[in-house]
Amino acid sequence: MRSEQMFSVRGDLELLARTGHFFESVRTEFLCAARDLRTWSQPSARAAVRRRLRASEAVDLTTRKLLSPVALTEEESRDHLRLVRGEGAQVRINGSALPHETIIIDRRVMILAGRETPAGREYTVTTSRTLIDGVHSLFTALWDDSPDLETYVRGDAPHLGAGARAVLDALASGVTDASAARRLGISLRTYRRRVAELMTALEADSRFQAGLRAGAWGLRGRPVG
What we know:
- The protein has 225 residues and is α/β, with parallel strands linked by helices.
- 48% of the residues lie in helices and 16% in strands.
- The longest helix has 16 residues.
């Protein structure tokens, strides 16, 4: 990056072209706060950081990933996070949506993810120490208030019986309530009552939120067909 203190790019390819050397040369600290693993989708940047992680003993690199529960809704995502933890990264889960997704590299450059556009997602890149220090402080406050990955996954997971898990699978399948009730061999009224009970057990305000929380806890049900 030349002498700019702040500039914007659109799309992952332009972002990597302008900032890729920072990912390759990270020395002491790599911080990432994101809603889920799709925010930073450029595999070349991920690969660069993982290479530095593997050499962390030599460079004394601290890597911290702060994510929302949405990042845990898919088994593949949970497996990936456990993999990076095994390579030395620290992973914590914050209950908020983390709308202001960011990466801070060595406290010398910060990348803020913005809105999606037809030309790709917009990113703002800055080397302003004042801005970086301010966001770094906010990141640290959220980090200190967030449980690590395994603690979050197992800490508040409710116990679901076979019936509740079958209802959970029916919700995940996307079928209508009437179809789900027939497949489970229960009345429509009983099915909807069990859905309400499941939402209560998961402390969810909607069916969508129930699915997110069940995924975050790694809860799986049996097939309903």
